[in-house]
Write a structure and sequence with these properties.
single chain, alpha/beta, about 30% strand, elongated
């Protein structure tokens, strides 16, 4: 048996106190002479042997009570069978949880300050030859190496609250990855939120010693600005916008009259109040207008105490002054497309005859419409396919008079089915797929006798890969009047009939306008409204072309980073790794021009202030040996217990001290050997 605080054993000298009291407490029997015993009503007869036994038992009880009380302060423990060599260098890894939840305050101050104090105590209990590693949620490279005590304490003082968040499995993997095949002693100081610990079993190295130190924190009510998205397909100047926000109540009580405020570019655009039930989420729609062209910086704000780190949600989007549409035509007499897009000033229409098409300008258009080509060429098909694969949208209205022999090679060049035959005769009525996204919010009410487009002549196409085809306007016998195909990163809408009035009434039908506008609005590339710090390491932007000596950079207040680039069809991917650590707005700049504004928010995983119990943590580790302590346990005891897997005996000593005190009381109270004798 060893002792954690052997200095307390000097207190065993206090055993002399009850011994001295016992030695000077012997009473000698004294003879008393009476002249007449008739006045003696009662006599006490004492048994000296039993009296001595009583005093000895009381003495032993007092000695044992003092002895076990002193031993309890000396903290005895039984070491395991494994012998610890004091001269051997120990490898110790200490993880400090510095997530937002560690800002919570208890009797000891903030949880982060308590964790740092506890880490210092643990380090001080180890020897000079031991090596230490400090880990935080930031997973910094300088924290990967092992250092001595002084360097560890210096790094510990620099630990601050961070927006980064990790899982328990990630932390354990990080600790054990630096062990270099050595047995590592791991300490994890955290409040152990349920989102941090997770629910899946933890995989560990069986040779490592794990010690979890739970910092005492209370479950706090918290409402989070969880997410936001837009209902508008495109953002136009001076048009009304609708934004949907979602709030989540992580507390155990209902929240009423939670104020919401939406600001754009520093100006308040919408306000509201909502009620959120305990443990539930609600959505609310905010409407506003008056947008100018350019990038918009939006902030959704709620008021919620005491936790405020998730009360703001940043987002950004671009308002384009116009949408560029290209019309490639074969028959100049048909003006349906020109009349359609000229009716809305938001669309900027450019028309090119099929004999004079500028292929180099394709990338500048959001939508290309091809109508009535007389001589569709394979070169045009190749350029259009490249445009679509890079994220563009294309609509093809064929010229039925050109025949299937000319259109089949053109269509196959676009990865579309070839023409099977041309159908003519009795007018055929099409049907609408009302579940298609093109008809969403088009009809206030579906009439019983809905007027539908009809065609007199149309192409029927070879049926192949129908699973990749999405019908918009359907015809009998598994044919279609208008269908959508996904090609690469873009979309192609193929019509079976032309816009010629002799072939049908599609171009003059009322449904033609919303279909074309919906296709045009849907052709605009959408990008995320915001990203999450610590998890979003790949950002997406519209296609960016750079010269050899040009580079992009992300710029914010006193921050600048150069991302790695990767070109993909239709977009440019920006790789930032873990460089973005703070929420806010970051400008994507090329030279002196701003190409985009990226919004970042903190991870909402820290919003749930519920904590895992010791039993739940133990179940996660399974058969792996793990020591789980509350932060009230002193650091030196933690060190000894975790290092040697010893069994502490101080609780047993306290119990035995109380037992012998109780025995002393019972002996004094009930061990009475005096007999009362009465005379008549």
């Amino acid at each position: 048996m060893n002792f954690l605080y052997p200095g307390f054993l000097f207190a065993l000298l206090t055993i002399a106190v009850p011994i001295v009291i016992h030695l000077f407490n012997f009473r000698k029997f004294k003879k008393v002479y009476f002249s007449n015993v008739q006045f003696l009503k009662e006599a006490k007869e004492q048994n000296s042997t039993r009296e001595k036994l009583k005093h000895l038992l009381v003495l032993f009880s007092r000695i044992l009570a003092i002895t076990f009380l002193v031993l309890a302060f000396a903290r005895p423990f039984l070491p395991s069978g494994k012998t610890i060599n004091p001269s051997q260098r120990n490898v110790v890894s200490i993880y400090i949880d510095n997530s937002y939840s560690m800002e919570t305050v208890n009797k000891e101050g903030s949880l982060l300050d308590e964790a740092k104090r506890k880490a210092k105590e643990i380090v001080s209990s180890y020897g000079l030859n031991d090596q230490f590693q400090l880990l935080t949620n930031d997973f910094e490279g300088r924290h990967q190496r092992f250092i001595n005590k002084d360097e560890f304490v210096q790094q510990l003082e620099e630990v601050k609250i961070s927006s980064a968040s990790r899982s328990l499995q990630q932390v354990i993997n990080r600790q054990q990855s630096g062990a270099n095949n050595n047995d590592i002693i791991s300490y994890l100081l955290s409040d152990f939120q349920k989102n941090f610990s997770g629910t899946q079993p933890i995989r560990t190295n069986s040779s490592s010693t794990l010690t979890f130190i739970k910092l005492n924190a209370n479950s706090l009510p918290n409402i989070s600005a969880d997410s936001i998205w837009s209902l508008s397909p495109v953002h136009q100047p001076n048009q009304s916008e609708r934004i949907v926000v979602r709030l989540k109540n992580f507390g155990d009580e209902d929240a009423k009259d939670v104020p919401i405020k939406l600001s754009l570019n520093g100006q308040q655009k919408a306000i509201g109040n909502v009620a959120v039930s305990a443990g539930k989420s609600i959505t609310d729609t905010l409407s506003f207008s008056g947008l100018n062209a350019g990038w918009q910086k939006g902030i959704l704000t709620i008021k919620d105490y005491p936790l405020t780190f998730d009360d703001e949600l940043n987002f950004s989007f671009n308002v384009n002054a116009e949408m560029n549409v290209l019309h490639i035509y074969g028959n100049p007499s048909q003006s349906y497309i020109k009349s359609l897009f000229s009716a809305d000033s938001y669309f900027k229409l450019t028309e090119m005859p099929e004999g004079n098409v500028k292929y180099s300008t394709f990338s500048g258009y959001s939508l290309i419409v091809v109508t009535g080509l007389k001589e569709p060429s394979s070169g045009l098909a190749q350029q259009l396919k490249s445009y679509v694969q890079n994220g563009g949208s294309l609509i093809v209205f064929p010229d039925l008079n050109a025949g299937s022999a000319r259109y089949s090679p053109f269509l196959t060049g676009l990865s579309l089915p070839s023409v099977e035959q041309i159908n003519a005769g009795t007018p055929v009525t099409s049907t609408l797929d009302l579940k298609n996204e093109l008809f969403k919010n088009v009809f206030d009410q579906i009439p019983k006798n809905l007027d539908l487009p009809t065609v007199n002549r149309y192409f029927s196409y070879v049926s192949q890969n129908t699973s990749s085809r999405e019908d918009v306007l359907q015809l009998p016998l598994n044919n279609f009047l208008l269908a959508k195909y996904i090609v690469g990163a873009g979309k192609i809408y193929l019509s079976a009939s032309s816009l010629d009035p002799n072939d049908g009434n599609l171009a003059r039908h009322p449904v033609f306008v919303p279909i074309m506008f919906k296709i045009a609005f849907g052709s605009a590339r959408t990008f995320p409204l915001y990203y999450t710090t610590g998890t979003s390491d790949v950002l997406e932007s519209k296609k960016i072309n750079l010269l050899k000596n040009q580079s992009l950079k992300l710029v914010s207040d006193q921050f600048e980073a150069i991302p790695d680039l990767r070109q993909t069809p239709g977009s440019t991917l920006l790789y930032v790794a873990d460089q973005i650590k703070k929420p806010g707005f970051y400008n994507l700049e090329k030279g002196d021009s701003t190409l985009a504004v990226m919004a970042f928010n903190d991870n909402r995983i820290e919003s749930d202030m519920h904590y895992a119990s010791n039993l739940e943590l133990g179940n996660l580790l399974g058969k792996q040996k793990v020591n789980i302590f509350n932060s009230r346990k002193d650091a030196q005891s933690l060190q000894v217990t975790a290092k040697s897997n010893s069994t502490e005996l101080w609780k047993l000593c306290v119990i035995l001290a109380l037992v012998f005190l109780a025995i002393e009381i019972l002996l004094i109270r009930f061990f009475n050997n005096t007999k009362n004798l009465k005379r008549a």
